[in-house]
Amino acid sequence: MEGDIGKVTDQPFLIKYTESQHRKRTFSPSSACWHLFSTRAVGQVLAVFSQEWKADTPRDVRAQKGLCALIPCHYSYPSNLANKHRDGVWFHTETGDSFAFHSKDHGHESDRFRHRTGLSGDLKDGDCSLIINDITAEDAGPYNFRIEFDKKNSFSYFPATQLHVSDFTDKPTIFAPEIIEGKSCNITCTFNTTCRGTAPDLTWDNPTDVPGSVSNSVTQHGGTLTYSSVLTLVPSPKHYGQTLTCRVSFPSVSSQRTLALTVQYAPRNLSITSLDTIKDSSISTTEGNSTALHCSVESFPASNLRWEHLGVTVIRSSSNNEVRLELPHVTSRVAGEYRCVAENEHGAVESSITITVEHAPRNLSITSLDTIKDSSISITEGNSTALHCSVESFPASNLRWEHLGVTVNRSSSNNEVRLELPHVTSRVAGEYRCVAENEHGAVESSITITVERRETHEWKGALLGVGITLSGTLAGFLIYMCVRKGRNTGKGHSAQAARAGIYSPHEQSDKPWKDEEETLGIETDRYRNVFQADNIYENCNLDEDSIYANV
Question: What range defines the domain where residue 132 resides?
Fold first, then answer.
C-alpha cells in the first residue's frame, strides 16, 4: 500500500468529503500531513469513479510583500449539481487547514486572512480564483480549494498551489515622449498587476515650477491590469535637468521611479571667452604672441559649433556644445572678426569677436595726383600739388612730413597724413620725408619735388633778343660818345700847334700830307679813331658797374 500511495502523490485528483466528516476533523501540524497523505490515496480511488470533478490551478504562484496575490482557479462538477447552491472554501494547509476564505461565512476565516481575501470571479461560472491582498511573508505556503454543494456533495481539489512571497521590488514605469520647449507633452506613469486586489495609488512629485495636470486610469489587457497616471505639462529650458517622481503606493508598501527632464531646446546663451582681456567684443594681442578663443553654448541636444573668419570655417566641433580656436603665432593676417555659430535641430545662434594685432608701422606708401617716377615728381612753378602718406600699423601711428629737416605737417594716430602745396615755387623744391611712428617702432620714406619755371624756352629766347638789342644800342651809344670826344681832342691839338708853330717829329713828317689834306678839305683825324677799336675804348672813361646796371 505505501508503495502505491507514493506513486500517486504528484498527480491531481479529487477528494470527496461529507459535511459531517468535514466538521468532525481536527488538525494539527503533524496530523495535517497525514491527512493530506491519506486523502490523496483515497482520492485516487474516487477519481476512478468520478471523472466529472476537475480543477485547473497552477502549481506555483509568486507574489511580493504588500501587493496582492491571485491564485487562478477554474473547477468543474457533475451536471446534476448545476442548479444547486454552492459555497467555496480556500484552505491554507500550511497552518493546519486554516480557512483563508469562506464564501458563506467570513467568520470562519482565520483572523489574519479576514478582510484580505476574496474571489475574483463567480462560483456559478466555475471561477474559483482567490485574491489575497496586502501579502505578508506568513502568507506563503500551499493553498487548496474546496467546493460545498450540500451535506453529501463537498469536494477538495488537489494538489495544492504553492504561494511564494518575496520582498516588494516592483517599480512604476515612466514613459516620456520627446520633450521640446514650448510644446505640451504627456508623461505617463504606469504600474502593472495581475490581480484585482487593492488598487495602487499613483502620485507625482514634481517641482513647484513644473506645473501640470494629472489624470488617472486603469486598463486591462488579458489578465494584466495597468494603472496609469498622465502628467501633462508645457516644458521650458529652465526645467532641463529637474526631476519628476512617480510613486506607487499600497497600504503597507510603496515604490517610486524618477525621471530627469531632458527638455530639447535651441542653442542659447552663447559665450565667447579668452585668456586675453575682452573689451567691447574685441581682444588685442601683439604680433608674434599666441592667443585662443573658446566658444560655448547651452542647448539640447548638443549643438554643432564652428569658428568662421572672413566667411571661411576655420574649425568646427560635433555635438558637444563648445569649440576652441588656437592661434599659436599671431600675425596681422589673423586679425579681423571671428564668428562663432552654434546649431542644432531646433535653431541656431551666433556671436562674434574681433582680434586686433598690434605691430610696428610697415608698408608706408607715398602717393600723389602727379606722376611719381623714381621717387620724384616734377611740378611747374605756380601749380599746386599734394602728397599723401599712409602706413599699416596698430595701434595707429603718428605721421609727419619733413622738409629740409623741418616738420611741415603732422597727424595724430590715424595712419595717414596729407601735405598740400597750393602754389609751388622754387623754394618748395627738394626732398620730403614721411615718418610714421607708434609704440612698437617706426618707418619712413621720401620723395623729391622738382620745380620747373613756367615756359622756360620762351623767356630764354625773348631774353636773348632783348640782350642783343640792348647790346647794339649800347655799342652805338659808346661809339658816338668816343667819336665826339676824339673830334674835340684833335681840334685842340691843331690849334695849339698852329699857334705855337711847333710840331712833333711825327707831325713834321706828316705835315706835307696834312697841308695837302687841309688844302683838299678832308677831315682825316675825325674818323681815324672810329676804326681803331682799341683806341675807342681807351678814350672811353666808363664805369663797368654802370654797364651791368643798365643791362
Answer: 2-166
